[in-house]
Fold:
Amino acid sequence: MNPYHFLVARKAQGYDALVRDGARELFGVLVVAKDSGIENVADLEGKTIAFPSPNALGAALLMRADLDRIHGLEYKQEYVSTHSSTYLNVALGQMDAGGGVMATLNRAEPQVRDRLRIIYETTRVPPHPFVAHQRIAPDVAEAVQEAFLKIAETPEGQELLARIPMRQAIAATSAEYDGLHNLNLQNYWVD
Amino acid sequence: MNFKSIRVRVTAAILMCAVVGVVLFEAFWLPRLNSMLTETQTTELQKGITILSEGLLPYLVSNQIGAVYETLQNVEAQYPEWVQVSLTRPDGGQLYPLEPLSELQGDNLSTESMAISLRGEDLAVLSVVADFGPQLQYFQNEQIRIFFIGMIIVALILFANIYLVDRLITRRILMVTEAADELADGNYDAVLPSGADEVGLLANSFCLMRDRIRDQTAKLDAARVRAELALEARSRFLATMSHEIRTPLNGIIPVAELLRHSKLEPSQFEKVDIIVKSGKALSAIVNDILDVSMLAGGKLTIQKVEFSPNELVTEALEVVRSTAEHKGLKIVNAFNAPADIRLHGDNSRIRQVLINLLGNAIKFTESGTITLKGFAKPKPNGHIPLHFEVIDTGIGIPDDAVSRIFERFEQVDGSIERRFGGTGLGLSIVKDLMDAMEGRVSVTSCIGQGSTFTLDLELEAITTPPVPKAESGIEPLSYSDHRTALIVDDNGINRTVGSAILTKLGYKAELAENGVVGVSKAQDKKFDVILMDMHMPEMDGLIATQKIRETDGPNAQTKIIALTASVQAEDIEKCRTAGMDDFLSKPINIKNLTTMLSDCS
Structure:
């Protein structure tokens, strides 16, 4: 479950985190065209920034929250549906900067990626948690958590989990996501 | 190769059509097909771009460049002939692809562009460069395949055609041709092609024609055989008639001559003289008829004996001299040849021709001169041209008759015959004899002034010196006593006449009525001369002569003179083979007999 969705679901229905990927963290990246001359976030004052969609966690919610709260930046937003559109818009000079995440940036075609430069990374949050509803008895939830982690101990299990993707399954707690809560992402959510 | 044969012509026509087809295909159809294909491809390209533009429009409006890229990449993957797809902003910036565009090279590249706009505002321009090369190449490969298949079809048609022309026409027409050639060689059964087509009809018509020719040829052959038999019968009839007429003449002339030599009253002498002259005239006519029948039957043979042209001329003139002088005509001998010249040829035939022409000249000349001109001049090759001209001062021959007078039974006109007499055979015999001796006779004439008959022939010269010949003549008759002669002849008149002549010449003659009696008498007694008829019942003259020569009897060496009415060369040869020494034609000419007897005495 998307960490932000988890926050909303925990508040509304009482979900608890059981397992998450311990090998990485979730954050957004701000890219500009390599030859654009833009060196930092402040250079983007009044410029146009592309995002895949308003509610994308790393690329849009975390980024917009940071730009607003930390940098107090005034800019125009363009939502271009997908990460690759974001990168292409920036690479082609259609937009001045774009919000994305490392995973999609790394998956972008080399000739696109080579034209981009990262100027900013957002606040890091734990990645997507595996969650259980409160109506599930705690011992059952615990058993599921143990079984999950047990799968991760075997090479076959590792392989299966890598396809989620989850590189290193560890036990997660709902408290680990409290920091996300403090970012007040609901202010940036677009319904 | 025969360039006029049907096979070659049809083949050439088909090949020419094929070549014209290939040229039209290559020069007109192929370019047309190629341009049609290009047109179609261009239209397809335009359609594709239009559809693609429509598809890209919403993405461009919402800046979904990723979707634009995905779409264009998919399109590029799906249409390999679209070698370059590009999207540019109205300001010229390139939206797709990321890399700068490369310059494309190729003969069959086609570029189509379309502006993508929304409510009059241009968002981007889509350009596609398509390469029709592979399509065209594929299409052209197919064309080459079609071309080769076409060529194979043409070749098949050609071979089928050659085969059909050969089987249906050429061979069968050649069969007809061969049958025609065979027909020319007399074979009426050559195989002909059958069938109900045109060639078959030709063969049928040819067959019908051949049958008709066969029938007509058979009829013609039969008619020819009948005609030949009839001609043969006529010749035989003429020969027999002449022979039969000559036999009684043989009785009349010598007896009349003998009678004329006896003591007679002047009126009696005159009458006997008429008998002699009439008899000789009749004999001449009969001889002419015999000559004509021999010439017509191709039985005349030209002999080659040694003779002197000077003597020949003298003899010929002697024969006609008395007649000419009787008419008061002058005979001039203007023949000019070396005195010792001797030739090889048929002297008796040449003499006959000369006598004939001289006789004619005398007959048609009332007064004046008959001249015999001529010469014999040796040529370097040993041949001697002999030239004679018989010139008279007679009535002449009209121009329109000159060409006809050498034809048989022709005289200048019918009235001549009544006025001058004669059979009209003389000049035709002259012409035939000259032809037989490979000589020429011609005539020039002037009405009222006379005619000139010219003879030309070429003979071989003889270089050996002449054999001296004893002088002989009818007067005076050489009487000699105690000489004996045997006359063998089945004809009583001939025996009597012969006996009378020999008696007149001083011989004591014994008679035998056939060969058997002749041989028996010859064995009993030696004779000075034997006159032997050739054709006799019981035993003919040839066998009798052989028997007399074979037996070592008293007359094994005696001179035997053949007597016969036939004067053909082969008869003379038979007589010589049988052992006879000389040859005398009937009726017996006293002068000739005297000459022969003087030789053996």
The domain at 28-121 of chain A is CATH 3.40.190.10 (D-Maltodextrin-Binding Protein; domain 2). Strands of chain A lie at 16-21, 28-33, 48-51, 76-79, 97-101, 116-121, 130-132, 169-171. Chain A touches chain B through 21 residues (CB under 8 Å). Chain A has two domains: 3-24+126-183, 28-121.
